């Protein structure tokens, strides 16, 4: 492997690592948002003394959207990890 190939490989690896970090950060943000929505749903039910169906449905819709985005990010992370593992540095 010559120096030019090594430098190109190094750039690719750093780029993939940066993407991985961004996706991982967003994944954890979505997990946090999901947990916050669950807490909101509990509070809505607790403080109203009855089920506020509109609010709960709204929170469920938000939660579903977050879960879908989180699943997509998880798949992208898996692909990124696979790409990193495929890089041959020999």
Task: Summarize the model shown.
It is built from 2 helices and no strands. With 90 residues, the chain is an all-alpha fold.
What does this structure look like?
There is one protein chain. This protein has 90 residues and is mainly alpha-helical. The chain has one domain (3-85). 89% of the residues lie in helices and 0% in strands. The protein is built from two helices and no strands. It is rod-shaped, with a radius of gyration of 20 Å. It starts with a helix and ends with a helix. 1% of the residues are buried. InterPro entries: Cell_div_ZapB, tRNA-bd_arm. Keywords: Coiled coil.
Keywords:
tRNA-bd_arm; coiled coil; Cell division protein ZapB; nucleotide binding
Write the layout of secondary structure elements.
Blueprint: H1 3-48, H2 53-86
Helix pairs in contact: 1-2
GO molecular function: nucleotide binding
GO biological process, one term: FtsZ-dependent cytokinesis
Coiled coil: 20-90
Derived from helix and strand composition plus strand pairing, the structural class reads mainly alpha
Q: What's the total number of strands?
A: 0
Quaternary state of this entry equals single chain
- Biggest sheet record: none
Shape: rod-shaped
* Rg calc: 20 Å
Strand content: under 5%
Mean pLDDT: 82
Query: How many domains make up the 3D coordinates?
Result: 1
- Given as residue ranges, the uncertain stretches (5+ residues, pLDDT < 50) are none
* Intertermini distance: 7 Å
Write the element-wise H/E pattern from the N-terminal end onward: HH
Helix content: over 70%
Helices, by number, come to 2
């Amino acid at each position: 492997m010559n120096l030019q190939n090594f430098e190109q490989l190094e750039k690719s690896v750093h780029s993939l690592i940066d993407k991985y970090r961004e996706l991982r950060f967003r994944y954890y943000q979505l997990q946090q948002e999901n947990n916050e929505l669950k807490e909101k749903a509990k509070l809505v039910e607790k403080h109203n003394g009855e089920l506020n169906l509109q609010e709960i449905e709204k929170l469920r819709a938000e939660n579903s959207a977050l879960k879908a985005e989180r699943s997509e990010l998880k798949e992208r992370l898996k692909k990124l990890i696979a790409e990193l593992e495929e890089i041959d540095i020999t």
